Amino acid sequence: MDSIKKWKDYIQLLYPVRRNDVQKAAFRKWLMGELKHSGWRAREETYGKLNGSVNVIAGNPERAQVFLCTHYDTAARALVPDFVSPTNVAAHVIYHTMAAVLLLAAAFLLSLAVSFPLRMPELMLPLFLLLAVALLGFSAFGPANPNNANSSTSGVLALLASAKELAFDRRVCLVFLDNNERNLLGASAFKKAHPDRAAENLFIDLDCVGDGDCLLLLPSKYSRWDGDLLAALEAAFPAGEEMTPVLRAKGLHYYPSDNRRFKFHVAVCACRFLAGLGYYIPRLHTRRDTVLSEENAAYVARSVARFVPLYLDGGDPS
Q: Whose CA is closest to 137, among 107, 176, 177, 163?
């Protein structure tokens, strides 16, 4: 817990925003130093100017059987708060559809407010299109969100703590992915650079684990049929500790993060629960994203350290 608190305070003080190249480079330098102190030799992997991503990799991806990943970049400040309800896909789709409709309506009203007083109806359509593109693109290219405790830093903190709990294991590869907030470019680049490994091995994606008492474990449609995987997850993430684990091997769920790029994956995220809605993640991409539970990070790290030997060896995690 002492290391988790130290890392949390240090990141939030010196690297709260990791959006431009300079901010990311400074953070990666610090990150690789901390991984080295935990016994992991890390390196940067780049993918050219077109993609622009720089992932941090600790371990050998060509030999690893389990990949533990998270993303380290942070988001722009959203005009409309992001909303994620992994187990209520209908609510997720309806919310984001309505958010897009509201932004388009705002663009229409603004274009009308400008063109009507000027008595220039021919101006309305190009102005509407310009405003619509600007508003819809604001979340990807707008000013940086100053607070990213849960949406990005929590995953970094949990994976750093997991690295220390595990110590070095050549069967495990840690991947800190870039450009999650730009259409998962870092995950896509990693998959393209290591196609065989990405297609055949298990990826555990730690994302948004800092705010909420329930920890959702969401296997992909290809992973949910792996009985050994499910048994290892149940044993490694026990109830009765800091968080309440929820393993969903049945039913429809959707988690929109780097896990979507890998066939065999388990998305791991912390959620709150609301009757009638289900599990949800609050405050993403807003100034109110300030909650990062050290207890959550500790629970995830211990559980990941238990999971690896259970899954790979079928043995005692202790």
A: 107
Domain ranges of the chain: 2-77+145-313, 89-141
Query: Is 111 within 8 Å of 131 (Cβ atoms)?
Result: yes
CATH, range 2-77+145-313: 3.40.630.10
C-alpha to C-alpha distance for 308 and 172, rounded to whole angstroms: 8
* Both structure tokens of 70: 């998270």
Strands 265-274 and 214-219 turn out to be antiparallel
Over residues 254-291, the pLDDT tens digits come to 999 999 999 999 999 999 999 999 999 999 999 999 99
Mean pLDDT to the nearest integer, 223-241: 96
* Closest among 21, 295, 264 to 154, alpha carbons compared: 295
Going along the chain, which residue ranges are E strands? 42-46, 54-58, 66-71, 172-177, 202-206, 214-219, 244-247, 265-274, 278-280
Collect all residues with Cβ–Cβ distance below 8 Å to 122 and sequence separation of at least 6.
Answer: none
- How many C-alpha atoms does 71 have within 13 Å on its Cβ side? 33
Query: Among all chains, which residue has been given the structure tokens 């050549």?
Result: 170
Structure tokens at 15: 């690297």
In Å, what is the CA distance from 193 to each residue of 51, 62, 71, 181, 196?
12, 11, 17, 20, 9
Confidence of residue 120 (pLDDT cuts 50, 70, 90): confident
Contact criterion met (CB below 8 Å) for 270 and 128: no
**Token output for 306:** 């238990």
One-letter amino acid for residue 13 of the chain: L
